[in-house]
Amino acid sequence: MRASAGRLVAAGIAILLGTAFVAASLMAGAVMERTTYDAVTSQYADADLVLSGDAITPEQVDQVRHTDQVAAADPMTRVGGQLEAGARTEYASLGATASDERLNSATLTDGELPTQTGQIAVAEGAAQRLGLSIGDEFTLVQEQWQSTDDGGTVTSEDRPVTVVGLIASPDTYLFAPIGALVTADDLAEILAYSAPEQEGASSEVLVALEPGADVHAAAAELSDLAGSGARVETVEEIAEHQTADLTGSDRTMLALLLAFAAVALIVAALVIANTFQVLVAQRTRTLALLRCVGADRRQIHTSVLAEAAILGAVSSLAGVGVGVGLMAVGLRVLAGSDAQIPLSTDLVITPAAVIVPVLTGLVVTIAAALLPARLATRVAPLAALRPADAPPTSRASKVRVVIAAVAVVGGGALLALGLSLAGSGGDSDLLIVALGVGMLGGLLSLFGLLLGCVLIVPALIRLVGRLLQRNVPARVAVANAVRNPRRSAATASALVIGVTLVTMMSTGALAAGNALSSELDSRFPVDLEVSTATTLGDEQVQAVTTTDGVQDTALLASTATTGDLPDLGEVSQDVAAVATGDLNQVVRSSDATAGLAEDTIVVGHQLAEGYQLDTGDEIALTGRSEEEVTLTVAVTSLDGTTSLVTPDVLTRLDPEAQTTILWARVAEEGEYDTVTAVQSSLTDASQTLDGADTPMVSGAAVERAGYQQVVNTILAVVIGLLAVSVVIALIGVANTLSLSVLERRRESAMLRALGLTRGQLRGMLAIEGLMIAGAGALIGIVAGLVFGWAGSAIVLTQMAEVPMVVPWRDLALVAGVSLAAGLLASALPARSAARTPPAAALAVD
């Protein structure tokens, strides 16, 4: 190992990156779990015990308070209320001031806690949004649901309150956070009005014990008092099982992170296996001499595996250190940022975060060295007497070729079967089966491609080599690249995995986005609809029309009408007509407004289905003018609950109809930014209008913007995680070229002696690196395109037709990075080869 330390560096870096990924993932999971645990314990303050039950009555709470060793006990009750300060309102969760400081989970930041009726302490964030400070008075609105024969009604009651204190705003929303505190008596009155059926019962009671009390004895006494329907636990006990229940989604995320780490380790294993195969080949004479002096096959096998174990252990330990460092830096950046992310910023290093990565790295490294160790045992003692030639060319066996072909064809058939099952319709169970069949087909196809790389990679390199026949260094580079197909294929295979996954995610996201956009265009013929219940002000209209990306707009006036239907009787119907603008320039499809005339009304398909209307039916509408207007129904793809009529018909129904709707068409480029800008501009414009409501923004562009934000975020995270495997694969390219330079040292010296310049030697290695990286990238891109489209088609085929789209920008970026990295990977090996004098290289035996 001392003699080959330089050759093992790349393999060590590969396993270091993989284990660092595993360590960081496990620590991220530990941070999520600690965050959840802290959120659970924070709501219980410093209580000694928690009494839990289905309905703990006020009488039982009084009994708990009078129990020996109990200093205080408060029901953990929350009720919703609306805070109204002038024209501003906010919904908040109300709690009561604790009877003991140890049971108070809220942190007082200014003023005092409520002690008298009519006093309230408000969270700082809510107070800022409502414009409140200590001493201000505002209204607390209580609501009550009352059941009636026709469904039910909501009644409300106003309660004047005065701000006496400010409490810290919650930093996590895992549980219903306290937005305001009132006295226990006030909270009881609010509960009696808002939820009279509960009769003041609660599900949890916080208990503070006397100093020096026996916690276990007090818990046993309270258990006897509460009966079999309740349980008594310490805060630590209840936090542990609640954390276990609540971290399911976090563990799902951890599983995903570990899945990406597994990909990185698989790629690292390919690099390690390739490295040890080259080392074994270069040590043929050394291994043969060991056999001559008495070493048996088991000793040779053990020596190679011991070398791999040492490399794996050292690299894994270093990887854990790198993972800890990366996690510490990430948490430090998170702590210093303004992002309101409810995560614990304390580094949590669990035993698993150290032991698991080290064991994983050790096992992966030893497993990758098993085949090279087996090859080492086949070296015969007589090999020590043979000339030190380059390792013989290794070709693919017929069995390997057959297995690869069967895997690719069988995987393709399974993919096609998955598409067929998904497209046949049916319930969600069939879709899950189709997705499982498709995933199995994809994995099988990728396995076949990796096995077949030993044939595909040399073929691609030879194909490119035909274009470079006139260039002598290029011809030599092609010959060198295909001299050992297995080694070149193993190097390219590592890159194939990373590029395939990156391309698959990009293609899948683009295909899904296009399919969803097509479906949204059919459901929402209008990109943006800005609507309000009153009247759109000039400032609001100007805010939309002047936003970059808004191409065409149309203002619509609307009114409420009633009509008689044969089957449903009298129904309400909102109708609108264009006031300014051209509808045909705004809607995505003219079919949405087809049939609009003086004697017709255009009704959306969803509304028509609900009202049991078909094209050609007649409906008589009566508006504020009390004139009855009979119109013929034209059902179109229009969305929403508002139907279209002509301006003249609207005037007959309501001469004073107000402009309440604005339709806009948005440019496809930068649609998300346009939607965000429109919403922001409308909010600003509405605040300048006294008493004006902020209009509601809907339409296809809003839906697409939401999907785009989610998809782009997920895609960025996934590609960022997969980038680790691509980096490891590119390290493998550099490793292969470095070992190849060492292996062909005498050959390079001979070429130099025959007239090859240093620049031509560097160019020869650069071309070799470009060819290996390019072949891996090309195979990965093609496979990723197929897998990405097939996956999206299986998932979304029942919702919309999924087109086969090519993310040219992403593919160009992936190919560019791969080729640039292949070129960069050749720099150091080429520098080493060019600096070696021909005489010194030829003198080596």
Outline of this structure?
The protein has 845 residues and is an alpha+beta fold. 57% of the residues lie in helices and 18% in strands. The strands form three sheets. Strands 12, 13, 14, 15, 16, 17, 18, 19 and 20 form a nine-stranded mixed sheet that branches. The protein has a six-stranded mixed beta barrel with strand order 3-4-9-6-8-7. Strands 2-10-1-11 form a four-stranded antiparallel sheet.
Describe this structure in words.
By secondary structure, this protein is an alpha+beta fold. The longest helix has 44 residues, at 700-743.
Essential attributes:
845 residues; alpha+beta; nine-stranded mixed β-sheet; 25 helices; 20 strands; 57% helix; globular
Give the % helix: 55-70%
Instruction: Please provide the count of β strands.
Output: 20
First-to-last CA distance? 21 Å
What Rg is obtained from the alpha carbons, in whole angstroms?
36 Å
Weakly predicted, low-confidence segments: 388-393
What percentage of amino acids are in beta strands?
15-25%
| Helix run count | 25
Multimer state? single chain
Task: Summarize the main sheet.
Answer: 9 strands, mixed
Structural class of the secondary structure composition? alpha+beta
Specify the overall morphology: globular
Mean pLDDT comes to: 79
Reconstruct the topology from this structure.
Elements: H1 5-43, E1 49-56, H2 58-65, E2 70-75, E3 79-85, E4 88-96, E5 108-111, E6 119-123, H3 124-130, E7 137-148, E8 151-167, E9 180-182, H4 184-194, E10 202-209, H5 215-226, E11 230-233, H6 235-246, H7 248-282, H8 284-292, H9 297-336, H10 351-377, H11 398-423, H12 428-465, H13 472-481, H14 485-523, E12 528-531, H15 538-545, E13 550-565, E14 569-580, H16 583-586, E15 600-604, H17 605-611, E16 618-622, E17 628-636, E18 642-644, H18 647-653, E19 658-666, H19 671-688, E20 696-698, H20 700-743, H21 745-753, H22 758-796, H23 808-825, H24 827-835, H25 838-842
Parallel strand pairs: 4-9, 6-8, 14-18, 15-17
Antiparallel strand pairs: 1-10, 1-11, 2-10, 3-4, 3-7, 5-8, 6-9, 7-8, 12-19, 12-20, 13-14, 13-16, 13-19, 16-17
